[in-house]
Design a protein that fits this description.
heterodimer; A: alpha+beta; B: alpha/beta; TIM Barrel; 3 domains; five-stranded mixed β-sheet; 25 helices; binds iron/sulfur cluster; rSAM (chain B); oxidoreductase activity (chain B); S-adenosyl-L-methionine (chain B); iron-sulfur (chain B); metal-binding (chain B)
């Protein structure tokens, strides 16, 4: 697999959006990014591998 | 005919991705499907199901290949047709067969690509047990999906697929959710497709151009020249405007190739395609997309039963597809976007009589898409507000210390993490009265809510709720609302839960219900008074103006020494996240002992270790007493989900000073690691460290070295004043420097991590000067 690291994200951008949103207006997709990182321990390294994932259906 | 497999083309090369066609039929009959609907009709002659024997043989071939090439990892994709047609039991057996030989020699990542129709909790449990990540096909909203993705009788598959995605979002299966695969149809409005996919909250989306060749060009409405580029650009702009809420491989690939990186896609870019397909009868094939070219195009004539993967990799078309730009036709080679496009998907280049030596049939679209995406993403990068100086944060922390501004900033990030997680608990478990009240108090007095959400265990509670299906802990939010109401001095009435006799109002105090009951209750806060009404209509009343506690109320115990202030937390049930049993409610004697120890420890830190004081002042908020160790050993721990807290068993001031410094190093680095990757989380590297007998994973070594550097520093400052320092300083110093050397040569640090470790090494080296 060509799993070179292509980009690296940080959580700082999404958190800035969340900081400025009232609690009820935090967007689910912004919260999701934090959940994936903090609860699911997702990597922020954006590996791009030529994925078989794309190869059907 | 060019491109047909069979000709030898030199030496073998490594392949690391294998698509196993575990079932060759499908329960849908999508009219854009290239397995059944395109030129290649070989599925008709294949067995329906891959037998366990063939699966075992395939796995042994893959394992042998991985061993020969010392591959650090291989990926196996369970595929079809529709793999879930196997049913949970056969799937379980097949995956077990596949895993054993491969996992004996290398790391295996398992994936499945499915239409989702048959996804169920039984299937989810099997896949979870084997660690199989799942990609689901969905083409957008109902009309978009119904356009192609139907059952043979014409019925829609939309509801079943959405049910599958809802299951994958559940906490117990969320780790399996890899993403959505969406085949583009330019008749579907791109904004609507984007929104429908976003609503499914996929970690990643893959957009696929419909399969086409020069013989069968793609659908192009009217006279539009580049409909596919236009369609994708609408989504690209929206994705950027939304600040990239999920990963989209196609765009990430273009952003990457614009800077000379890999593309991560067969559709665009010159990345080597190191992929083989193994059919249900064991025959090796080329990538599936070749089915679109001509009947028999993917065939290789080889099989796992008779040939090695090396044999396969020698075949000419497979080798050709490894060679990126060099094998492109003349038109592509002279194209200004060739490095980013590289002729598009191999199969899309096919034309009868010319084989694959052509530009893609999507050439005009690809050219425009690449150029436009480059332009839009540079505008986006230029317009992005500069993130708070990452370099400065790294430099501050790597020095071992961190000033108040930096640690204050980290604490602020943690509050935002907590806000996000709280809102995710509502999303997962549904709204609660406490949440509504909390939001109302926030509208009146945001600072009051912010003070409460800074309580370290709010995050720990939220993480716990996000890992369970059981919503019974949700009324914890009522306690947060009541505490915020007290700070804001607004009347609050809401529901709470008495949790084993306790209701926590973080930063204000703890209510103790008589008896360790767990039950619903109502809380009211109004003008400095508090009422808790629980089982049997009994009410506890507290006058917050009265100092001191009672049997039913313990006001927050705050210790303030020379401008440093911490709370002792002995009530909140969510505090039980440090790996040791928390002490119960302290009596006044025990609380006084903690006050003395903390005051003494703080004075020692200020006098002897002043470099660590600003960070502790800005970041440490809570001390959580632990039960003492029966054998009298020290106990202290930092919980990564509770930044700003430290747990410890009772201990004297001198030891406590060291524990505070040591543990808060873990907390600082933990908070930094929430935001940035300093190391590759997928790395298997283990690192020998002096302080543990067994080799440690990279993150543990990094944490250990950071904390031990501080301990080294402590003993350095005690040289001459404490006789133990003569032995302990060199020992800790050696452990630290050895571990730094090992980390540096591990190959598992990111550039940011390497910078961090280099700076830490420089700080340690300066101690000798
Ligand atoms: S679900 Fe996939 S394999 Fe099945 S018919 Fe549709 S595209 Fe083909
Ligand atoms: S844009 Fe067209 S000519 Fe250029 S590399 Fe892509 S397919 Fe070839």
């Amino acid at each position: 697999m060509n799993t070179e690291v292509a980009t690296m994200d940080t959580l700082v951008g999404p958190l800035a959006t969340i900081k400025n949103a009232p609690l009820r207006e935090i967007k689910a997709e912004d919260a999701d990014r934090v959940v994936r990182r903090i609860v699911d321990k997702e990597s922020l390294l954006r590996r791009l591998d030529v994925a078989a994932f794309q190869s059907a259906h | 005919m060019p491109g047909r497999a069979g000709g030898e083309s030199g030496g073998p090369h490594p392949l690391s991705q294998f698509v196993l066609k575990v079932h060759s039929r499908c329960d849908l009959s999508c009219d854009h499907c290239y397995v059944y609907e395109h030129a290649d009709q070989s599925w008709r002659s294949k067995p329906k199901v891959m037998s366990p024997e063939v699966a075992g043989a395939a796995a042994r071939r893959i394992a042998e290949h991985a061993e020969t090439w010392s591959l650090p990892r291989v990926r196996v994709v369970l595929h079809g047709g529709e793999p879930l047609l196997l049913g949970p039991a056969r799937l379980d057996e097949l995956i077990t067969r596949v895993r054993a030989p491969i996992e004996a020699v290398t790391r295996l990542s398992l994936m499945m690509q499915t239409n989702g129709v048959r996804f169920s909790t039984e299937v989810g449990d099997v896949l979870k047990r084997h660690g199989v990540r799942v990609g689901v096909s969905l083409d957008g909203d109902r009309p978009a999906n119904d356009r192609h993705r139907r059952f043979a009788n014409g019925a829609s598959s939309f509801d079943q697929v959405r049910a599958a995605l809802a299951l994958l979002r559940r906490p117990e299966y969320r780790e399996l959710y890899a993403g959505i695969l969406c085949t583009i149809d330019v008749r579907n409005p791109p904004e609507q497709v984007y929104e429908a996919l976003l609503a499914e909250r996929p970690p990643r989306i893959d957009f696929l151009l419909p399969h086409a060749t020069w013989d069968e060009p793609p659908y192009r409405p009217g006279d539009r020249h580049t409909p596919y580029a236009d369609w994708l650009s609408v989504i690209h702009r929206r994705w950027l405007a939304d600040d990239r809420p999920m990963r989209i491989r196609l765009f990430e690939g273009l952003h990457s190739t614009a800077r000379g990186g890999p593309s991560g896609s067969e559709q665009l870019g010159a990345d080597a395609v190191d992929l083989a397909v193994i059919e249900s009868d064991g025959s090796y094939e080329q990538a599936d997309s070749m089915k679109t070219a001509y009947d028999g195009a993917p065939a290789t004539g080889l099989s796992v039963l008779t040939h090695t993967v090396d044999d396969l990799s020698r075949l000419q078309p497979i080798a050709v597809r490894q060679n990126g730009i060099r094998n492109l036709c003349d038109v592509c080679r002279s194209c200004p976007v060739a490095t980013q496009c590289a002729g598009g998907l191999y199969a899309h280049r096919y034309r009868t009589g010319h084989g694959f030596a052509n530009p893609s049939v999507y050439c005009p679209d690809l050219r425009v898409l690449v150029e436009r995406t480059n332009e839009e993403s540079s505008m986006y990068d230029a317009g992005k507000p500069q993130e708070t100086g990452t370099a400065e944060v790294i430099a501050q922390l790597a020095s071992g210390f961190g000033d108040e501004a930096t640690i204050g900033w980290l604490a602020e990030q943690q509050r935002s993490v907590t806000r996000a997680l709280l809102s995710a608990t509502i999303d997962q478990h549904g709204g609660t009265a406490g949440w509504e009240v909390l939001a109302e108090v926030e509208a009146e007095d945001p600072e009051a809510v912010s003070r409460v959400l800074a309580h370290p265990y709010v995050r720990a509670w939220a993480v716990g709720m996000l890992r369970t299906e059981d919503p019974s802990g949700m009324p914890y939010l009522g306690g947060l609302a009541a505490a915020a109401g007290v700070h804001a001095d607004v009347r609050v009435e809401t529901e709470v839960r008495i949790d084993r006799g306790v209701v926590t109002l973080p930063t204000i105090g703890t209510l103790y219900w008589p008896g360790e009951v767990t039950a619903g209750a109502r809380i009211t806060v109004d003008r400095g008074k508090l009422w808790l009404t629980g089982p049997d209509d009994r009410t506890i009343t507290v006058d917050l103006a009265q100092p001191g506690g009672s049997a039913t109320w313990q006001p927050a115990r705050r210790i303030t020494v020379d401008g440093w202030s911490v709370r002792i937390e002995d009530g909140d049930p969510a505090r039980d996240c440090h790996g040791w049993t928390p002490a119960g409610r302290l009596d006044d004697v025990a609380a006084a002992r903690w006050r003395d120890a903390l005051a003494g420890a703080w004075r020692l830190i200020v006098a002897d270790l002043p470099g660590y004081a600003p960070a502790l002042r800005a970041g440490l908020q809570v001390i959580m007493p632990l039960e003492a160790d029966p054998a009298g050993r020290q106990r202290a721990a930092t919980a990564m989900d509770a930044f700003g807290s430290m747990a410890a068993a009772p201990v004297g001031p001198a030891e406590l000073a060291v524990l505070l410094v040591h543990e808060f190093q873990h907390a600082k680095l933990g908070a930094l690691l929430d935001l940035y990757d300093l190391h590759d989380r997928n790395s298997d590297v283990r690192i020998m460290v002096g302080w543990k007998p067994e080799p440690r994973p990279v993150e543990a070594a990094l944490q250990g070295v950071y904390a031990h550097a501080a301990v080294t520093d402590v003993w350095r400052t005690r040289l001459g004043s404490d006789p133990r320092a003569a032995e302990l300083y060199p020992m800790y110093r050696r452990w630290t420097t050895d571990a730094i050397t090992a980390l540096r040569s591990s190959g598992a640090l990111t550039p940011l991590g390497a910078d961090f470790v280099d700076r830490m090494a420089a700080a340690v080296a300066a101690w000798d000067a």
